[in-house]
Design brief:
It is a single chain. The chain has 13 helices and eleven strands. It has 373 residues and is an alpha/beta fold. The protein has two domains: 3-181, Rossmann fold; 191-369, Dehydroquinate synthase-like - alpha domain (Dehydroquinate synthase-like, alpha domain). It starts with a helix and ends with a helix. The structure holds nicotinamide-adenine-dinucleotide and glycine (GLY). Glycine is lined by residues 144, 148, 150, 248, 251-252.
Amino acid sequence: MNQASACAPIQVRIELGERSYPILIGGGLLDQAQTFAGLPRASQALIVTNTTVAPLYAQRLQAVLQAQYGRVHVVALPDGEEYKDWQTLNQIFDALLAQACDRKTVLFALGGGVVGDMTGFAAASYMRGVPFVQVPTTLLAQVDSSVGGKTAINHPLGKNMIGAFYQPQRVVCDLDTLKTLPERELSAGLAEVIKYGPIADMALLDWLEQNMQALRAREPAALAHAVRRSCEIKALVVGQDERESGLRAILNFGHTFGHAIEAGLGYGHWLHGEGVGCGMVMAATLSQRLGLVDAAFVQRLRVLIEQAGLPVVGPQLDAQDNAGRYLALMRVDKKAEAGEIRFVVIEKPGQAGVRGAPDALVREVIDACCLRQ
Ligand code: NAD
Ligand code: GLY
């Protein structure tokens, strides 16, 4: 029996005053009218998805939403991180304007983090803001990107550089959609699950060590626990620091190195989660060299990341000066202040902080963690 389908949805709440919303987690949610009850009323809705996810799930979502909205349109964007840009974003505005969608129109982001981030940004700016709902269909999007209201597109010079904080009305994590997710994408999502352990919850890290096989086998109960615990931790952090004036930055553990890898190789070569997985090994190594954690902790994390099917050795980004290239890319990171790179480090197992580090030390870390020529 498919346990995820049999369970009533789990609810996790993001508490942000009048912008609070629920995250629904369970099986078979996509087909239930109840899942979408109580959303803002409108005469039209637009499902934003991509060319891979549309044939799998768009019709089902469209059918269930039709009972609630007079007209439900679908726009399928090209698939890939390399399309998370202005030109593709504009396709959403084209669809909205072509259908004369008004300012009450509700947008539904059906897909992974790329679709979610772009739909959220479109919702934040179309007619200065329309409501939107996240319907994440990748593990990464269910445990991280659909929650918390960060929306963005990439710029060739830096990832997620153009965007807005804009909260969805609801997040619907239908665990059954993960059945069609390619293996590599499942692993990428596991990177963001693992992240929550060293920064906030060592019990989660213990649990992941025990359950990695079950997660990779997509056992519904294991997936439900991983999504729920990840969303609970993210909800706690976002509830305290919605716009990342401090605490929320810890959710970027591994991302400073990871974003450099993604941008340095060209978006779409390494998946975001792969960059984060490898980036966590690098950030943990930096934490060790800063005297914050021991080698055993770094090794424990490295083994878990590898068991998740993720790379743990960084790629060469430049044959002449690899570390210099990483440093240059990391200076464009959003956490950088006056040109100084700020890293999320593990202060002690289960607790993270943000610090600068001398370039020479960071170079040592990059040399130690990357492929040799
Ligand atoms: P993605 O959106 O590119 O999806 C991965 C791939 O899986 C795509 O090819 C997609 O078409 C396919 N796919 C999606 N659902 C599927 C399904 N159920 N079955 C089969 N195939 C499916 O990548 P992602 O890993 O979901 O998200 C990465 C993006 O999220 C990055 O752009 C990253 O910057 C962003 N992100 C944002 C936040 C945030 O807080 N907003 C947090 C983390 C990551
Ligand atoms: N994924 C990091 C954040 O939401 O802040």
